[in-house]
Structures
1.
Amino acid sequence: MDTIRAEYIWIDGTQPTARMRSKTKVMPKNEEPPVWGFDGSSTNQAPGDKSDCVLKPVYTVKDPVRGGDNLLVLCEVMLVDGSPHPSNTRAACVATAEKYAAAESWFGIEQEYTFFEGTTPLGWPERGFPGPQGPYYCGVGADEVFGRPVVEAHMDACMRAGIAISGINAEVMPGQWEFQIGPAGPVECSDMLWMARWLLYRIGEDFGVNATLDAKPVKGDWNGAGAHTNFSTKAMREAYEPCIAACEALGKKAALHVANYGHNIEARLTGLHETCSYKEFRYGVSDRGASIRIPWQVAKDGKGYIEDRRPNANCDPYVVTRLIVDTVCSAT
Ligand code: ADP
Ligand code: MN
Ligand code: MN
Ligand code: MN
């Protein structure tokens, strides 16, 4: 019998920010990956005396790391009674996406992250600091850019897996990078983002570097790491007024959104470093100091999408996309 390796991937119950876990199942080729299980007492998802948690496959791609017919299998975590585990944020995202399916929501998420080698960001001196921010964003050259081979390998892996990665760029802080996923529906974009995060960690292993989604990996005059979330409905892609209405709706629930956009958001949304303070809400055309930016092209075309700049790099995209769909679509 021909067998393959299926890497089952899930999101654990660690607070305040969940971690990713995975383990391998050797299984027959050309079969659907079956429901599986794991020890929830080792992942902050169950007490030791009731440790069994269930893995329900929801998004499967070809494994670009192992190659061949091997698979990566993203799962939802379920309780043994078949209901979603409390740590499972995808189930609610699916419900909201279905409720407002007629709006045809699309998301494009810009995932920023920082490479670390040991205790310092990649490319930083062991003591002290690199030169101040300025040349690093979209830079080129070994004095400005650190970790490009990892970034290239990750982008290539995402493409071979069929993940809708739409680009990469070096970021403002040295050692910091970004990749973008989308546009795609709320659940699809979030599934692909989680899968792309797992691939980033996994590929980092081969290079001896570790990617962190910490929202403020270095204190002081260094940019934090966000996950700008670009959003449109069919109506927004056809006219300008719904883009403004979406901004207005998001403004009415600003506190709810900020509270659910990732751990330590107060440290990142300071009002400096291309952010708007978490205590304020404003939107504007081309404004990188606003909570929500309307890209100039969108203002010019009179239609398109908006960019919610508030989500942290360490946000849960199932939560962020669910909240945006719910807030915007329930208001219009
Ligand atoms: P920025 O200029 O803020 O750095 P990026 O180019 O990094 O923007 O990311 C823009 C993201 O927006 C991409 O992922 C892209 O796929 C996504 N996007 C483009 N059009 C739409 C749309 N109509 N709705 C939602 N997302 C979109
Ligand atoms: Mn970007
Ligand atoms: Mn960026
Ligand atoms: Mn952006």
Note: The chain has two domains: 3-88, 96-330.
2.
Amino acid sequence: MKNIVLFGPPGAGKGTQAELLKNKYDLVHISTGDVFRFNIKNQTELGMLAKSYMDKGDLVPDQVTIDMLKAEVNNNPDAKGFIFDGFPRTESQAASLDAFLKEKNSGIDGMVALEVPENLLVERLLNRGKTSGRSDDQDESKIRNRFNEYESKTAILKDYYQKQDKYYGVNGVGSIDEITSKLEEVIDSL
Ligand code: AMP
């Protein structure tokens, strides 16, 4: 199994790159943001709960997110591995993921992080908001709050994976193809 955490702040390009990489490596792509949005669209209980946090740009509570992630993994028993996109986002989520994969005699092979300066991220998100229909991409104060959440709860995961010697930073500025090639170089080495 090859399990990759694709990491980076909102707007770094995780979703775009994950879609390309999953085909090349035959991995299952799990985006917790996409799963939440699917639940919101289908007006499930989970969706209604998640919406109240997502609309503000806040993180959804850990336990809800962790349970959902585990269910997604368990729904894919034949997967050759996973690309986790937007998960983990807190230290508690990272520790739960490690424990969960360990039970399956597996683990995270590497965290590959897309590094992009914040001014470029805001521009990308506002542009995406014109077509994504995502309210959290259309309002600069919500975008700023997502960055605050990222800085205060998520950015420390760099240390978490660095301590395990599993952190790989990649420059996330450039053409989509250029960035994909750099990510592939890292993933091929894992
Ligand atoms: P994303 O599509 O990854 O930008 O996520 C959109 C929103 O979904 C975030 O701003 C959070 O409100 C929520 N979300 C997605 N993944 C997580 C996670 N791992 N933990 C908590 N909230 C999450």
Note: The two ends are 11 Å apart (CA to CA).
3.
Amino acid sequence: MPSVYLETFGCQMNELDSELVAGRLAQLGYTLTRDADAADVVLYNTCSVREQAEQKVWSRLGELRHEKARRPGMVVGVLGCMAERDGADLMKRMPVVDLMCGPGELDKLPDLLDNAVRTRGSLLAGESASLSALQGNASRRSATLAAAGDDLELLDLSRAFSPIDGDGASRRSAYVRITRGCNKFCTYCVVPFTRGAEVHRPPGHIIEECQRLADAGVVEITLLGQTVNHYRFEHGAAVTVGGMVQPQKGRTYKGAHHRDAFAGERVTTFADLLHAIHEKVPALQRLRFVTSYPRDFGDDVLEVMRDSPRICRYLHVPAQSGSDAVLARMNRGYTVGEYLEFLDRARQFLHQPEIGRPLMLSGDIIVGFPGESDEDYRGTVALLEKARYKNCFIFKYSPRPGTVAYDRIPDDVPEAVKRERNNHLLSVQAAIGHAIGQEQVGQTYPVLVEGLSQKQLKARGLSAADRKPRTIGVTIGGAAVATLPGVEARDTGHTPDPGPVQVTGRTDGDLIVHFDATSDAHARSLIGRIVPVRVESAGGLSLTGRLLDA
Ligand code: 5AD
Ligand code: SF4
């Protein structure tokens, strides 16, 4: 069977898609490889959120031209949002591409790939072959979400669950999708176009997936959705096909501030879902979710978080701007005051440093959105100071063809101003992050150990990117196809260093902590475990601490 190299660009949703695709292909007999130069099939799972993300893929595709000239049998595929957005244009611009598959069509990838591989084979054999493997742009927004059509659910359901062996540390933490797509239509954003309408997965499927991951040894699950807190499954509306409950289209709801408003047998709300996973999967030590939308975040969810010890005290709630005028042009549906009120409410429920459980927040901000004045920007600085995120992703506005902002709002903030605001805001956030770090010194936190620290990886001639491989690791039938480098890399030639080995982990508030293990063997034994670490100093984006006796 052909070997496949799969590289992922962009968000966590893409990482999960790649993992599921890799798992599916491995089940079908393909071999996954980390060596792009030797692979029979090269797949890029792409992102369209900002132009820069697309540029990276264009240049990678450009580089592949030479490789393909050398090896004409090689198959090149573009998956994900760029395939969906650019459609046939992408293939025209880059003839090196043999197949494309949008994020809503990934269930069809094995067939597309099979076709493409066969076509290539017949071309090589000198036969005529005009088969096109392009199919990836049928919009699920316009398509009926009728149950029978939603085969995409099968991709999530086909996930491989194999027991994690000692070296499979990267697999101790897993993503589980709860919602696909987005109905928000923020004016700058391509996601509602590339990923289609919001669809919620049946709670039974989600809980079972969490259970099976926990049975396989996963200790931390991150639930994924573009707007996770909008999760809502109406059981009465569920359709069963072939004994399988189908996902359903999301409905927005207003003014939900108490759990009772939705509790009942016919509806599973996000609060109900969190509660159910927490109760039904006790082996799961950490449950988290991203990304939260700042509106319609009911007290019901905050109550469940407060009362469930294994749900992390961490929220990623993008504000995008600290100006009401800009928020309105972005179609975000809330004001700065409402956003800050939400953060206050979340803190009232969840910020409990006295019991070692402070609430940690992170955010996203776009600077240089059309019409953003100096005063608007000052509002954003003020918002960061009030929000006190532990970290914040800051982006320069990137006009995306097809979005409302691209069509109707001229991109009038000069690039130099965008850059200046971006750099300034990064420094504002760095100071806030540093202050939050200082507040942690002297505290002891349970830390989930993820692997060797960047410093340690560097000392071993590995890059930080090696710690989280871009080719997603999958374990099939107990055999690691690609596992966590760093530790395993030492099995292939590195002589263990005597003395301490620095490892990295995260608190349940998502703070990064480095500390020393006494030896390689000790480091290996800690990876994937949750251990108590006392914070001794804070610098930059991370904390340094000391391991206490577990
Ligand atoms: N330009 C810049 N940033 C964007 N984001 C989404 N679309 C754009 C765009 N056109 C950012 C938002 C979002 C994050 C995933 O990416 O901050 O929360
Ligand atoms: Fe894009 Fe807005 Fe949906 Fe987030 S909520 S994916 S920014 S449209």
Note: The two ends are 46 Å apart (CA to CA).
